Amino acid sequence: ASQQALSNVLYGASGFAGRQGDWGKLVRQHVWDKLLGEQQITRLANGKTVRYAADVVRALGWLASGKSHAIDRSKAQHCVLQILQGLVASDISAWNPLDIGAVAWACARLGLQRAPACDAFMHRVADGAQQWLATVNSPQALTQVAWACALMQFKHTQLLDAVVRSGSKLIKVCSNDEKRRFAATIAWAVAV
Predict the structure, then answer these.
(1) Closest Cα partner for 160 from 191, 120, 181, 116?
(2) Burial code of 18-28, b = ≥16 C-beta within 10 A, e = fewer?
(3) CA 13 to chain centre
(4) What are the C-alpha distances in Å from 43 to residues 3, 82, 98, 101?
């Protein structure tokens, strides 16, 4: 399957996860190994399309946690760690805040906050902040990053300072509700 097809299938499957019936059992038994085989994950990890990698990681977070458990948690963890160790995760300048937030959320949901690959990813996020912050055009995107740092229990003062500085420039054009959400999320991320 192509990277896009894998991303699409996993995203679609995450919508079915947790529903009643034998679908989950059938998926676990027959489909996951083909979709998430070493060759597929290696191709995705070493690809150049951040969106596909982020979507797969996000879907794995949904599929292996919560009520669904449509895929074995250890299999999902292995796949996520392999993706975060690949070339696609090494160039943080290609990532946007929504993808960063999705990956951090999935890592936290899968219990990978302390995994070296996740920690290295978050440090790349912090080190490359000036590059990807330049592409941000809404405070909501910035709240995703602050939220992701909190979920990952990633305390990086310079990153949160950069997010706040960038947000203070963008917030001038926001509604009062957006301003309050941004301020509350940043305060929460710093406090936890």
Answers:
(1) 191
(2) eeeeeebeebb
(3) 17
(4) 8, 10, 22, 22
The total number of residues written for the chain in this structure: 192
Cα–Cα distance, 66 to 76 (Å, whole number): 13
- CB within 8 Å of 3: residues ≥ 6 apart: 43, 44, 47, 49, 52, 53
pLDDT confidence of residue 13: 67
Beta-carbon count within 10 A of 160 CB:
20
Residue stretches of the chain with pLDDT short of 70: 1, 3, 11, 13-34, 66-68
Cα 50 to Cα 1, 13, 57, 162, 188: the distances in Å are 17, 20, 11, 23, 28
**C-alpha 49: how far from chain center:** 14
Tokens standing for residue 98 = 């929504």
Token pair, residue 51, equals 């969106």
Q: Which candidate, 36, 99, 100, 42, places its Cα nearest to that of 72?
A: 36
Calculate Rg over the CA atoms of the chain: 17
57-109 pLDDT, tens digit per residue, is 998 998 888 666 778 889 899 999 999 999 999 989 889 888 998 999 999 99
Tokens of 159: 């990153």
